[in-house]
Amino acid sequence: MATTRLMPLHTGKGRTVGQAISAIIDYTENPQKTDGGRLITSWQCDSRIADAEFLFTKNQYIQKTGRVCGEDDVIAYHLRQSFVPGEITPEEANRLGCELAKRFTKGNHAYIVCTHIDKAHIHNHVIWNSTALSQTRKFRNFWGSSRAVRRLNDTICIENGCSIVENPKRHGKSYNKWLGDKKKPTIKALNTEYAELLAEKKAAYADYRKAREEMKELLTAKANIDRILELDKEQEEANERREKEAEQR
After folding, report:
1. pLDDT tens digits, 93-106
2. CA–CA gap between residue 23 and residue 125 (Å, rounded)
3. Which of these ranges, 113-117, 180-184, 201-205, 237-241, has the smallest mean pLDDT?
4. Can you name the residues that pair with 24 across neighbouring β-strands?
5. Could you tell me if 193 and 52 are in contact, meaning their C-beta atoms sit under 8 angstroms apart?
6. Tens digits of residue pLDDT in 41-89
7. Is the pLDDT of residue 208 over 90?
8. What are the distances in angstroms from CA 70 to CA 16, 67, 136, 217?
9. Do residues 113 and 192 lie in contact, with contact meaning Cβ atoms separated by under 8 Å?
10. Summary mean pLDDT of the chain
11. CB count, 10 Å around CB of 101?
């Protein structure tokens, strides 16, 4: 069984567009939650610098269309997809998350799918850029979009042998956006922010890769230890069986 929740993301008070995008992506790509980054998949972007690429696409949109983004604009969409414990593997969950994102956006928007395994229930965080890959259009959150996501999610789950929620309940509270009081960003400001953000990502990539490799080594060591302990347990059980058989003779 998989449940979904769709949340439009806004810049928020006191943050730039780049900072807001970086914050949500950094959270979803946490190596400790995604098996050292192994459970991260991206479409039409590099997950390592997705925030910078999202920002670049928005800048190109302004230059091509002449439309300036306001503080109340949706900068990205955050879709959370949660599965019932024990029903699906992390790899399969990631695949279904990618399928849901691609079918819902019709492949017209760059996105990342991060599968978190730090909780009892495996769940996906899907982030897609509100600005289309064409750099001339945006994804519009339509009335009933949450229901449309849920129905598509149910379809995908049924197609892949997963259970669904038969009678979903409505959320008691709606998503309230927090608007800032700043002026609309200029093309020059977005260009500067994009360059700074990209430089930061390039500088931090070495540390990110090192941390990712260290996490992989820890997970490998843990798997080896678990395997050794399992072998020891199997050996003990085999010895006990042989002792019982010897006594019966």
Report:
1. 999 999 999 999 99
2. 13
3. 180-184
4. none
5. no
6. 999 999 989 989 999 999 899 889 888 766 678 999 999 999 998 889 9
7. no
8. 11, 9, 16, 45
9. no
10. 82
11. 23
Contacts of 163 (CB under 8 A, 6+ apart): 1, 84, 87, 157
Nearest to 82 by CA among 22, 8, 203, 163: 163
Q: Which two tokens stand for residue 218?
A: 């820890």
Structure tokens at 46: 């590099």
Q: What is the DSSP string of 137-188?
A: -B----TTHHHHHHHHHHHHHHHTT----SSPPPPSSPPPP----PPPPPHH
Query: How far is residue 16's CA from residue 92's CA, in Å, rounded to a whole number?
Result: 35
Q: Which amino acid is at 113?
A: V
**The total number of residues written for the chain in this structure:** 249
Q: Which residue, among 27, 13, 31, 53, has the nearest Cα to 197 in the 3D structure?
A: 53
Query: How many helices and strands (H and E) does the chain possess?
Result: 5, 5
Strand-pair partners of 114 = 40, 125
